[in-house]
Amino acid sequence: MRAWQIVSDGGIGALALNELPPPEPGAGEILIKVQASSINYRDLSTVEDPVGRRLALPMTPNSDAAGEVAAIGAGVEGVGVGDRVMSCFFQDWEAGPISAAAMASALGGARPGVLAEYAVLDARGVVPVPEHLTWSEAATLPCAALTAWHALTQPRPVLPGESVLLLGTGGVSVFAQQFCRLMGARTVVTSSSDDKLQRARSLGAWETINYRDTADWDSRVIELTGGAGVDRVVEVGGPGTLQKSINAVRVGGLIALIGILTGVEGTVSPTNIMRKSITLRGIYVGSRQMFVEMNKAISQHRMKPVIDREFAFSDARAAYHRMRGGEHFGKLVVRLY
Fold first, then answer.
1. How far is CA 131 from its chain centroid?
2. By the 8 A CB rule, do 85 and 129 touch?
3. Residue-wise pLDDT tens digits, 122-165
4. How many domains does the chain have?
5. Structural domain includes residue 319
6. Is residue 148 in some structural domain?
7. Taking the model in full, what pTM does it have?
8. Treating both helix axes as pointing N-terminal to C-terminal, what angle do 146-153 and 171-183 enclose, rounded to 10 degrees?
């Protein structure tokens, strides 16, 4: 079979499309014929810095796949050949709080990824594809969608009428906008692109802010919410935006810290976290149970993921380059069919 592999620390250009022996499922495992795989910022970071992540090379990247079950190993129940399934980011996180063992089962990092024609997964590490979704649409759900769902439903669900601040228009933020619309929440979306903000409004955004035109966007959020601040923030920027998110959230509000798009180093004053009794939670994708619950909502509302662009399997490097360029709105998908 063909598989893309990280073979060195040479970045996107050093990705190699290699011919590998076809894998076979062992006990408790399944083999899926991958139909599509989506790219997350975490996948790009892995490709660009495999040495810093202490990965054993060569390694296949990507956590997100949708495909058809091609074979099953001994003792597998509840999954059959021909089933349409999606990979779970964490193969060993079925339910409950995250654990060190669960974190050690992440695809495309601790375990080999799925940017290949076939992939072996744990039989409990997949979920069924919602019937109304295409392969490419289904492949967008395992990481970005579930991360957004986790951020909006834990430690309690967003309530109708509540306000949520969404930073940017990447995969997580666009999914969060779609989920907030289903939940009846009002969103404030930030971006440096007026065109992207217009697209966010078409998805139901209540207010938008161009942060290049409005450097003090946290103050603008306070104004838009009548001086109170938003109820929740889906924080994907990290050090470069976290302090403003702390300023923009209300007393007793929630911040779901998800990404580090602005880098890994910075200074944050804890004063307002304490004074405003803010709950600041780190979010790392979600469990299989959360995935199943999210899919019920997606199926009920027949929600369609927003795909920015699809790429042929042979052109996978171009998908990573588009991710690095930051011009995308929604998800980037590599299709194998």
1. 21
2. yes
3. 999 999 999 999 999 999 999 999 999 999 999 999 999 999 99
4. 2
5. yes
6. no
7. 0.96
8. 50
